[in-house]
Structure formats: structure tokens, C-alpha cells
Amino acid sequence: MSFRLPQTLSAASDRKGALSAVQTEIEGEKAAAMGATGRRVEETLAALAKADDEARPAALKAAADAVWGLFIQREIAGQRDRRPIIEHYGIPPEVLARLGAR
Questions:
Q1: Please, what is the Cα angle at 68 between 67 and 72, to 5 degrees?
Q2: Does residue 92 lie within any of the structural domains?
Q3: Least CB-packed of 60, 66, 67, 93 within 10 Å?
Q4: Is residue 89 part of a domain?
Q5: Is the pTM of this model over 0.85?
């Protein structure tokens, strides 16, 4: 007579649960990073809107760098359409022109 452990106690089940927990943690970190990048875009676009003529070139560069970072992060996550982000953040054409984006 053989004895078989219940599926819930098998090593494969433990590995699957641990992998699921790790995947959940990774997805949470991705979301947090995307949120931080989005906040940086908001901050730099607000600074660009307030910038005077002297500070404008530096503010434009900072905004373009932040937007570029968000575009790259979204592409890595498989989100290739930029239009929703451009509309959501109200990214000005001068920032997009620096990126070569439409």
C-alpha cells in the first residue's frame, strides 16, 4: 500500500505559492516605480510651466528627460501606445519635439 501526500502539502505546491508571492512583489515594485516616474513627469512639467525665459531651457530638458524615462518604462512593461500618457499629463509639443515623439 502506498501513501500519497495531499496536493497542498507537496513541494511543487510550495514552490508555486512562493513564485506567486515573488511575482506579486515584483509587480508591486514595477507599479511603484511607474508611479514615481509619473510624479516626476508631473513635477517637471509644472516647473516648465512656471519657468521664466532664463530657466526655461533647463526646465525643458528636465521635463523631456522625465517624459523619456516614463516612455521607456512603459515600453518595457509592454505598453507601447504613448497617446494616453501624452493626453493624461498634457505633455506640451515642445517637450515631445525634443524626444522626436508624436
A1: 120
A2: yes
A3: 93
A4: yes
A5: no
Per-residue pLDDT of 75-84, as tens digits, reads: 998 899 999 9
Cβ atoms of 51 and 59 within 8 Å: the answer is yes
Considering its fold, how many domains does the chain have in total?
1
In whole angstroms, give the CA distance from residue 13 to residue 19: 10
Question: Contact, 62 vs 33, CB < 8 A?
Answer: no
| Alpha-carbon torsion (12, 15, 17, 20), positive or negative | negative
Is the four-CA dihedral 22, 85, 94, 32 of positive or negative sign? negative
Take residue 98 and report the three cell numbers written for it. Answer: 525634443
Show the DSSP H helices in the chain as ranges: 11-50, 56-76, 83-89, 93-99
23-49 per-position pLDDT tens digit: 888 888 988 999 999 999 999 999 999
In a domain, 41, yes or no: no
